[in-house]
Amino acid sequence: MTLHPDSLAVHAGRDDLASLGVHALPLDLSSTNPLPGIELGGLSYEVLATGGHPFEGGSHVYARLWNPTVARFEEALARLEHAEEAVAFSSGMAAVTAVMLALTHESAKRHIVAVRPLYGGTDHLLASGLLALETTFCAPDGVAAALRDDTALVVLESPANPTLELVDIAAVVAAAGDVPVLVDNTFATPVLQHPLDLGAALSLHSATKYLGGHGDVVGGVVACDAQLAAALRRTRAITGAIMHPLAAYLLHRGLATLPVRMRAQQEGARVVADWLLTRPEVARVHFPGFSESDPLGLVGTQQTGPGAMIAIELAGGFDAAAALTASVQLFTHAVSLGSVDSLIQHPAALTHRPVASEAKPSEALVRLSIGLEDPADLIADLRQALTAKTGRPEEAAAAVR
User: Fold this and answer.
1) Which residue is catalytic, options 64, 253, 263, 279?
2) How many whole angstroms separate alpha carbon 81 and alpha carbon 193?
3) Residue ranges per domain, the chain?
4) Which residues contact 116 (CB under 8 A, 6 or more apart)?
5) Which of 125, 267, 282, 328 has the CA that lies 20 to 30 A from 64?
6) Residues 341-398: tens digit of each pLDDT
């Protein structure tokens, strides 16, 4: 039976529940598992440690190698992403790191092309040299020129963090040729965008955000084909970066409401973004639902909706941004995004603090993650915060810069 995406979000990864005699998702917290014997136990270990799946009569051996609760979440996410498989990790950055390690090892190539802007953690990882990789940063139209014989991977994010710039994924895939493309799909989610359908090799999520949706779980997940998934599981087994089963349980439960949450938060964001356009304190509103933020016309084609993230540049610069984040009452001043409650943060001072100066977002820019509150209440909070006088000392503001 072919299911509508909303139905798939509810039922994917639950095919074995009836045979287990349960209705709700089970949670397996076992750190170790009984072995059927030395030979089968050893074979089980070898198969799982090298990226394979459990086999009949074998064992899961050890939670660093395999966990059934994690596997159910992976199956569900893979189906939502139109992928053969998915591999879950302890955090989004663990997932990014595993992709870099796995693909450069498999190809014996050490060069990465990264399309800016990117999430600050990904940008910092690539620029730091920690993985002993060489990275060329470029704009979307510079990918072809940045490729080398030793390029293992092209990395991009769309919508991009934090400015919400949209990247034409199919165009980057065409420019990359035989080089696999990784798309960070965190902001769009599989509700709004399917990078693999556009030719990307891997679609990555910080599952901490919209997939979980409640600000109470940390995780990362990558959707891809079976061959790449095996390489990622090998890397995960060696590095010990598997997702904890409780996190997988919460994320799988979160998938059931993902389409409903995403649509509701997106509609709230439309209302808030429209209002922000009217404010003299706001110099610019970045929102993919506006034509000036989507010059390529990708919303409605590549991405079915604009999403629920907004970025604004304050006319008063950094001081106005600091005052706004200090004055909100309903919004929570915190990093991260995608929760049912609305969040606000200053990327240049926080998530993008370690990014090179040429790629750092404007100090006037503030990012809003719109939750499930009534938009009228969010607007009222922003109205009072935009006009509030916080009395914040100038030296405190300068210390954040």
Assistant:
1) 64
2) 8
3) 5-30+67-255, 258-400
4) 123, 137, 138, 139, 160, 359
5) 125
6) 999 999 999 888 888 888 788 999 999 999 999 999 999 999 999 998 654 434 334 4
Exactly one of 72, 209, 236, 261 is catalytic; name it: 209
Residue 184 annotated as catalytic: yes
Task: List the catalytic residue out of 45, 109, 123, 184.
Answer: 184
The structure's pTM equals: 0.94
Determine which one of 45, 119, 210, 249 is catalytic: 119
Q: Does domain 258-400 have CATH number 3.90.1150.10?
A: yes
φ, ψ for residue 370, nearest 5 deg: -85, 130
Q: Which CATH architecture has domain 5-30+67-255?
A: 3-Layer(aba) Sandwich (3.40)
